Amino acid sequence: MSSGLALASSPQVQQGLPHIVTPESVVQSVVGEAGTGATIRPGTGNLGRRQDKVQRRRQFDDGRQRSQQSTRPGSPTGDNTDADDAEHPRILLSARGEKVYVGSSAAISFLQFLRRLLRHYGGQSAFTESRTRHHMLENTVQESYGEFEDFLDHAERVALIRCFYASTSGFLCMFSDEEITHLLGVYEGTKTSLDVGHNRGIKQDDLASLYLVLAIGARCRGSNESDKRVASTFFAQGQQITFRDMLHDPTISMVTNFILMSFYMFASSRRNTGLLYLGVASKAATILGLHVMELNKGLRPETARRRVSAWKSLRTLDVQCNAILGRPSSTPHVASETWRGGVGEKPTHRSLAVNANFDLSLLMEPISQKLTKQAALDLDAAETHLQKLRAWAKSLPEPLRQSIRKARRDVPTYVHLEHTIGNIHVACAYYFGVMLVTRHFLIATLTPKLKQSDPSRLEDLREAGGTEKTTELSNVCVEAAVHLVQMCADALDRDLLLDNMCILQAWVFAASLVLGFSQLVASDEYHQDAPQAFLNSLRVVERFSSLSAQSQRNHEILTSFSSAIDAYHAKREREKASAGNPYLEQIIRPVESSMPSNAQDGLEMGGDGQASSMQMGPGVDMGAAPMGDFGDFNAWPEMQNGFLVPQMNDEIGFQLFWDGYSPPLPAGMQMQNDDMSMAPWT
Which residue numbers delimit the Xylanolytic transcriptional activator regulatory domain (predicted)? Predict the structure, then answer.
């Protein structure tokens, strides 16, 4: 049976995208052949049953199946695997060794593509050979310091509350200033040590909320050891109160407290735990009907405001954070028209920022869902989403569009900090959404340019895809990354960032990978500020690395990425020099020792990009098989029946959109679980 239809009939090519063999396209190809007269004969064993299953599926949904079956590219038999295999683009190991899922649109998937690409074209380096690529970084939560004790004075509590407001600006708007003032009064009138068995009720829920607010403020400020103690102690106490009756009667306070606990976990580099808490909050919110706007009619204004603000905060955080890891959101989908407008109170900058991010999440969710299912958007869909995103951006109120600048004398510093960070969070969420829509167009445009030494092959790839519109959207991706990083760098230079900004650093990391990728081609092909923006991204991530283990890891990755980019360009320059003058032939070439050294990070690189000497340190096993010559294998997929057929499998039997571009490993070399990598909070 042929592996696919004619190239001209491919929907990707009709939309201007290169056709890459994916699980969906293989199934559609089999169905298409059957529909044009080909006969699928029932076979024996698993292969025959699976072929029959594909044929029955075609009859059931009229040829519109999407990733319900998958085929391992490169498999000799082309057997269809179980449908569940196509739902796990990346499987990583948690801190306890449990397998966890990271979606195809996550930055970690893009990072893996870049590692394979640079391993081939630039040789092995610290960037391509990550020792911790099998594990997802999950920091250990610091234990509380013994029995709970109140050791804060009023001024310190107020300072931590202000830090909480700044760090969550643009995401959370669950407390008005009046409510916080009331909670603080309750707190200061309460005993320093709680009797867990008595005095249950709303007062305890309010105290739990305040403890969590103080814990987040201390975690994000982190100026000294005292802040760490406050963070762990108050979080443990707030968590204890929240867990006490959480399964008995869901309340608005329970939803609020689980949202607060999730944000604390994000700030502690515990992303899986944070998303788990969001899932609990989402289910409780659904039980309470917070997602149904009509239920708020007839309620007291304050009650309605609490319900709406809790739902908007939950929805915003859920969509944005799950999109970073390529996971589906846990909150139910709601019609966007139902939720337009404010939260039933006098507009403040805090509510404006949350409303804007909430409206953006309504646009982001379908983008994230589509990318989870099919890994790439066609041109028409991408343009439609970009137009909606831009219309949202153009409708932003003026207070959210202020440039990054120092505070005026008549504005308190803490107020200006909260407003600035809220504006940055709103703008970065938009730029991140644009990058999600356009990143695969950047891959489709840029990757063929890395093989310019083979003009005939390059021309084939250009014919398979790559239009002016594709190039234009790839430029949009880079420009969005430039804007995101430059804005954060401006805030850094004016000391308008906190030391721990868990979600912002994930956006900056995703933008950094895009900017670094664009540096692999001539600098004049993309935004002129892209090189400097890439360097600025390292400064921004480094700022967060003192308090965030995830940011520290991201900074290490970006530093090694920068070195790998330099090594790639050095290798290309040597290749150009070795080509020589077309009128002169070099008969005897100099020995390697007299050539410029390309050693980097403990890896000596041979002239062909192969690691001639490896010093990876103890505990790193690169396998006993001899290393193959990078020049002995074909870097690009072969053309078969009009398709680009990838030659490399991933660990679970299928490939992402960009895996079709990824060069295979050299003969004899096996990288264990290459798709399992340190997952940046991305």
Answer: 207-331
